């Protein structure tokens, strides 16, 4: 009896132990599984991927998607589990692309639930915020509550009293000469201004404008210049161009590498920073970045000669002088002079900067001196960065293809597409379905890499018309917004979990709990050069920590936000009016007239050709009306800018601007 009792007790004990173990295992197991998703949501009629991840291998998971009324709209099982070495995790894909009705949804798997949206406007406010960041990062101005809300602050750095550092001295400007070098954007979390990094950042924003002009003509971001003569984005870019222009020494055309104090400042607001600031040493890289950006800006602002008389000419003159300086000083590589400890942005290979500047100068001037300097064989593929600008040359060439011979364009296309193809393949076939990981992508500022890869896919779509590139670009953007190795949406103020302690001095010291929204943090960086504690893990895609301490993974900069802004706005544009491509515009056509224009809603089209159909688009490219009549009544459309696409019987297409007010 005793034995039986003992036996029974032991049996019960072991049963209890088994149940406990099972429970522990299942709890651990369920906790070990995570759902990684685009926390901003998914677009109607685009691919929608949710990734189920775990440190341990697991079986494909049953999942359910419910709508806002808890009706099951989709249930299924996730796909084959694959190992993703970059985050040292196992991943299984849940494809929910078949849901195409806008609304709020729940995704459930393994006892977990996440909420997400589907719609057409999911990137509306984040795309605005990604641009507004530049306003918040302006030097030499206060931010008023009208434009900055709770982020209003006093003016920092007038920069009207800047000294020429001994490393930058010339006979015309000896050491300690005082020059004025106001405006510009602070580079990042620090308060310094660096020409090289301004180069790619300003290029990327100018490219966004050049490639999607109609979209940006209508985009307002509530800055002091809003409502003025220029589109907001061009006003914002001009704030930085005006500063860059002051960095050129007028006599010789050389360009100072940076404007900084001798050291990084403490954790203070910009108006409390009183250290002397210097322009420091000219460099070839600075001259060439400057030349490329000024040349490009000259052609973009040439459309605003009435509003800014002489500006475009001043820009191209500055570009040519800087290029000439670089040709005479081809290998002045920048390193910090003794006693200067701010960011270096050093580069000992400027072949790519030369090519980029030559391309931009040739496109703008048509001068064969510049095309003679273009050597396509020296231009490489890959993802652009502040240090590697060949891809920028390719992007500009391929956009302005008519300026080049068809054989050069073919060569450029092949180089460019070799990268885009690798990225597309990575989206299709990597365990996580993202672009990252084809080369050394997890560097300081890896989120800048991921954002630039989205641009490459978008441009590949534009130059080939192959929509599979665009499809990949939409999926690739998920990485920055939550479907990644950490589960963070890396843009401050957006998503369910996003950086709250970015290495951004203003956000750190302004007394407002929430960081300035719309800032993309640097992202995973296994180099972990800041030595901070708290990194999520040490894997390539997991080396991230949301702490002030971590300038190597959690700083924000103008060169990472620019490709984010380009990508978000471009994807927004394609979603809401893909058929309106800027290449379609012929605003100069005079055989077609629209009157009255501005209109109150009723207007006529007159043409020497027979009009077959008319499509009316709003400013973001969304169709608001189609008709075959040339007398159009739209009294109920909102005031603002519209575009009319007019097809004539002889198969011509014209696009006209229309202002309703
Ligand atoms: O050039 C080498 C390359 O040859 C080598 O293969 C590779 C191996 O990792 O390293 C390359 O150098 C890296 C360099 O960036 C160029 O990519 C360094 O390791 C890396 O530490 C360096 O990081 C830069 C960082 O400053 C430190 O200099 C970042 O790209 C750059 O974005 C960052 O910029 C700072 C500014 O200095 C100051 N303002 C804030 C800004 C953002 O944190
Ligand atoms: O704050 C600085 C950041 O903007 C730079 O990107 C980073 C790397 O150059 O350096 C940061 O400053 C740190 C300095 O290098 C070392 N001491 C701590 C500083 C941050 O608090």
Description:
This protein is α+β, with helices and mostly antiparallel strands and 661 residues long. It folds into three domains: 11-119, Immunoglobulins (Immunoglobulin-like), CATH 2.60.40; 124-576, Glycosyltransferase; 582-660, Immunoglobulin-like, CATH 2.60.40.3080. Helices cover 35% and strands 16% of the residues. A five-stranded mixed beta sheet has the order 2-9-8-4-5, with no helix packed on it. The chain has a five-stranded mixed beta sheet with strand order 11-10-14-13-12. Helix 8 (311-328) packs antiparallel against helix 9. The longest helix has 31 residues, at 2-32. It is globular and about 75 Å long. Mean pLDDT is 92; it is low at 1-31 and 578-588. Ligand 9MR is lined by residues 188-190, 264, 343, 551, 555.
In short:
By secondary structure, this protein is of the alpha+beta class.
């Amino acid at each position: 009896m005793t034995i039986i009792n003992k036996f029974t007790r032991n049996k019960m004990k072991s049963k209890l132990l088994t149940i406990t173990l099972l429970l522990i295992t299942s709890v651990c197991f369920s906790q070990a599984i995570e759902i990684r998703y685009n926390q901003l949501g998914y677009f109607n009629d685009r691919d929608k991927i949710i990734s189920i991840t775990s440190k341990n291998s697991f079986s494909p998971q049953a999942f359910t998607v419910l709508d806002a009324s808890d009706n099951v709209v989709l249930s299924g099982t996730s796909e084959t589990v694959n190992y993703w070495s970059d985050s040292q995790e196992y991943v299984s894909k849940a494809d929910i692309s078949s849901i195409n009705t806008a609304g709020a949804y729940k995704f459930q798997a393994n006892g977990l639930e996440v909420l997400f949206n589907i719609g057409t406007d999911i990137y509306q406010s984040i795309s605005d915020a990604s641009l507004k960041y530049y306003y918040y990062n302006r030097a030499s101005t206060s931010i008023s509550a009208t434009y900055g809300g709770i982020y209003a602050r006093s003016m920092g750095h007038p920069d009207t009293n800047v000294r020429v550092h001994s490393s930058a001295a010339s006979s015309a400007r000896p050491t300690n000469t005082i020059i004025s070098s106001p405006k510009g954007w602070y580079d990042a979390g620090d308060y310094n201004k660096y020409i090289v990094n301004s180069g790619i950042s300003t290029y990327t924003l100018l490219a966004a404008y050049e490639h999607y002009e109609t979209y940006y003509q209508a985009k307002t971001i509530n800055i002091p210049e809003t409502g003025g003569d220029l589109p907001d984005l061009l006003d914002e870019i001009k704030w930085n161009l005006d500063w860059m222009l002051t960095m050129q020494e007028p006599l010789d055309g050389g360009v100072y590498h940076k404007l900084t104090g001798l050291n990084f400042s403490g954790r203070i607001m910009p108006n409390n920073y009183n250290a002397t600031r210097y322009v420091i040493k000219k460099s070839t890289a600075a001259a060439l970045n400057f030349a490329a950006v000024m040349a490009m800006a000259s052609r973009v602002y040439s459309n605003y000669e009435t509003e800014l008389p002489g500006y475009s000419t001043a820009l191209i003159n500055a570009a040519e002088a800087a290029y000439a300086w670089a040709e005479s000083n081809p290998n002045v590589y920048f390193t910090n002079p003794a006693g200067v400890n701010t960011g270096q942005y050093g580069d000992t290979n400027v072949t790519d900067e030369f090519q980029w500047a030559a391309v931009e100068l040739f496109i703008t001037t048509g001068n064969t001196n510049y095309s003679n300097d273009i050597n396509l064989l020296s231009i490489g593929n890959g993802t652009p960065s502040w240090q590697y600008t060949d891809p920028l040359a390719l992007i500009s060439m391929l956009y302005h293809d008519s300026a080049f011979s068809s054989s050069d364009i073919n060569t450029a296309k092949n180089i460019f597409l070799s990268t885009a193809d690798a990225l597309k393949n990575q989206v299709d076939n990597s365990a996580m379905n993202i672009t990252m990981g084809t080369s050394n992508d997890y560097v300081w500022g890896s989120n800048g890499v991921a954002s630039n890869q989205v641009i490459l896919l978008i441009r590949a779509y534009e130059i080939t018309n192959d929509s599979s590139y665009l499809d990949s670009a939409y999926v690739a953007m998920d990485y920055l917004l939550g479907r990644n190795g950490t589960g963070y949406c890396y843009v401050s103020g957006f998503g369910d979990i996003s950086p709250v302690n970015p290495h951004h001095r203003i956000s750190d010291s302004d007394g407002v709990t929430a960081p300035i929204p719309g800032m993309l943090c640097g992202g995973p960086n296994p180099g972990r050069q800041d030595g901070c504690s708290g990194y999520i893990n040490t894997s390539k895609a997991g080396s991230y920590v949301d702490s002030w301490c971590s300038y190597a993974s959690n700083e924000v900069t103008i060169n990472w936000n620019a490709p984010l802004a380009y990508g978000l706005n471009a994807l927004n544009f394609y979603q809401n009016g893909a058929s309106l491509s800027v290449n379609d515009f012929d605003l100069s056509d005079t055989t077609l007239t629209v009157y009255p224009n501005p209109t109150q809603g009723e207007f006529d089209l007159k043409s020497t050709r027979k009009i077959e159909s008319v499509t009316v688009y709003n400013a973001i490219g969304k169709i608001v009306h189609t008709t075959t009549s040339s007398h159009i009544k739209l009294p109920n459309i909102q005031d603002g800018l519209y575009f009319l696409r007019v097809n004539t019987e002889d198969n011509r297409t014209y696009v006209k601007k229309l202002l309703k007010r």
